[in-house]
Here is the input.
Amino acid sequence: MRYDLLIRQVTVVDPGPEGVAVRAGQDILIQGSRIAAIQPTGQVDPASAARVIPGEGMVAMPGLINTHAHAAMVLFRGSAEDVPIEEWFNDYIWAMETNLTPEDIYWGALLAAVEMIESGITTVADHYFEMDQVAEAFVAAGLRAHLAWAMFGQNPREELDRTATFAARWHGAAADRIRVWMGPHAPYTCPYDFLQEVAREARRLGLGVHIHASETAEQVQSSLQRYGVTPVRLLERAGLMEGRLLCAHAAHATPEDISLMAAHRVGVAHCPKTFLKLAAGIAPVTAMRQAGIPVGLGTDGAASNNTLDLWEQMRLAALLQKHERRDARALPLHEALTMATWEGARALGEEERLGRMASGYLADLILVRLDGAHVQPVHRVEAALVYAVRASDVDTVIVNGQVLMEGRRLLTLDKAEILRQVQARADRLAQRAHGRRLQTYR
Amino acid sequence: MRYDLLIRQVTVVDPGPEGVAVRAGQDILIQGSRIAAIQPTGQVDPASAARVIPGEGMVAMPGLINTHAHAAMVLFRGSAEDVPIEEWFNDYIWAMETNLTPEDIYWGALLAAVEMIESGITTVADHYFEMDQVAEAFVAAGLRAHLAWAMFGQNPREELDRTATFAARWHGAAADRIRVWMGPHAPYTCPYDFLQEVAREARRLGLGVHIHASETAEQVQSSLQRYGVTPVRLLERAGLMEGRLLCAHAAHATPEDISLMAAHRVGVAHCPKTFLKLAAGIAPVTAMRQAGIPVGLGTDGAASNNTLDLWEQMRLAALLQKHERRDARALPLHEALTMATWEGARALGEEERLGRMASGYLADLILVRLDGAHVQPVHRVEAALVYAVRASDVDTVIVNGQVLMEGRRLLTLDKAEILRQVQARADRLAQRAHGRRLQTYR
Here is the structure.
């Protein structure tokens, strides 16, 4: 046996800096955690692989990269509907989040892992609380994860120490499937001097920083009044752009903000469904991409986004750039596919090993069926993937060479037990009459 | 046996003029083509029904109503991507449509029927060519359909006679599952005197008229220059609002147009995905609804929309009103669910018998699973249906009392044969080098 896994006679979709290459009739050879080779079917004897997955009629592409999530918020799915962002935070989310125990977060992260694997996500950048639980859940699931423990700067030393401890335990763990980031919540919740401390600590620990910024026009106005600069400029001033920075949303980034982010190679996580739903505006993705900013896609949390479906984000991202720019040529197929994969890897600083179908890259990939009545006939594979495929068309999911789902059967997680655990917790978690809240959105 | 079918212990979702009622633990009794009763489980002996479908863990709701489609255009799915509307029509669609034979349209309509049934659509208002073939396909599928044979007014007498013959054969056929409409294409393609003739003929035959209008800002400008009035006003002037009128899109309806449509009870078919994709603008749905216009949802054709998924249209409709109005309260859950069902029935003039879960209404209904990891936990059933459910969660589809799909198994159509037929035709249909076209978009 020369190879651990052979995926045989599949159509390979490889997104990268030059566009998207589509090649039919390929064999993918996997050795350990890496893609050893991709070559036309017939050059290798199937007996030389320990395991063979037939790929006929399917597409093999990089696993989807979810650059911004709050996975355990699936616990609050559908509990805060048709409300503006202030009410969403103050009356619902920050009230309900006080109900969470570490065990709740563990089971929520597992439910999210099921949903993400079933929809073809292989890497997630998660930003939440009780991240030891989240790390345990994702390691058990077999996912790749970039984890940030949320901080508001209410107890600066304690919060910074917690992340340092978390990083010591998890950064590079599970065969380097887990990486740790620092997670200050946002410039509108964290005091400025705390942001400066985070920047210093990030440099000391060698970690990236994952933060929310410029979510609404009001936040930008408020930052201008309070600090005289936009939230994005404030991040730079606090020193946060001296290391790797991942900025969730940046929906109201100004042209100057975009230049600044591009100059500092700041990654952006674009989560269009949440932003439509909360009526918060849509990021100038086309301008960001033109400036060279790596813009990945994110599902955000299911309390605003309702699903963790990156296909839906990809489709919305493309449709909305066309709509916002009144140009049907905007954000074409190959750009949408690249954002969901390799651009996401770039936003996380993983572009050298993740997000492409090429030999030497990590074996994080998915097989997608194109034989559904809603996909046929396939005049163009890229169009099928961006505008017709559903999350339920994902057949097989592989991370780091390990098969997590095959033929839609989950191989690492006990879905029935996870659903039982979550359902048993749902009513208690939705309680808001206690009047507590984590934070106040102003 | 007193009943033909009992759906047992299901959560019933009933959208109507007063909002959406959600009632758990119900039995639905069906006799012939109608809902005989809906009542709490336990009041009727299951032995009194010829057939019992267990509904536990599922929602029963009215089948989705697709108020504007070109079903057979699934044949062109994914063949005209990232192009503006002029190019889309002139260089792709109207060129490829010259390749169609009646048999192609038959198989295309069958593929569309599979996709629609699998995604929970029970009624479709279709607008295309060779409608005898489409009628045959939909009757075989068991769908309910409102069919219009497209006319450009190039050979007025021949086109009007064709519709008259079509109506004589099909209006009220298949136990009144089929209804015929007149189908002038649009005010920008049909001569004005032809529109007047259509209005007269529609009155004579007692048929409604299904037309495209005000799709782009340019069409409105062009109508103002050519006729001195908007396309919607032109329809009224031609006499088309004297009978029932269904207006696809009306994306650029002015406030005066909206008043006019409301005064004449004109129905609107809203197809947001196509309009995002072609960058043509989004209809002022909230203003239309406030004026009392019945706004249904449509999938349009798959050459622009890529799928015939009305869940996606419902979700986009809600998200886009929030976005366009910068108000997260706009188009709330109950309105979105109603638009996909009972408002669609209103737009088609079927509101007395279709689109609700109530005794006496036609037994056109679907069962939807809510147990997916992407839907759980269910804090609110309406939120699950609008923002989390996928077309693949539709489990069972019933039209006119006939079960078309159960447990996702199609009972009326041979999907494998339909896919074979379509795949064999796809390459020939995509040919454009011949230089022919049906029409020219200016």
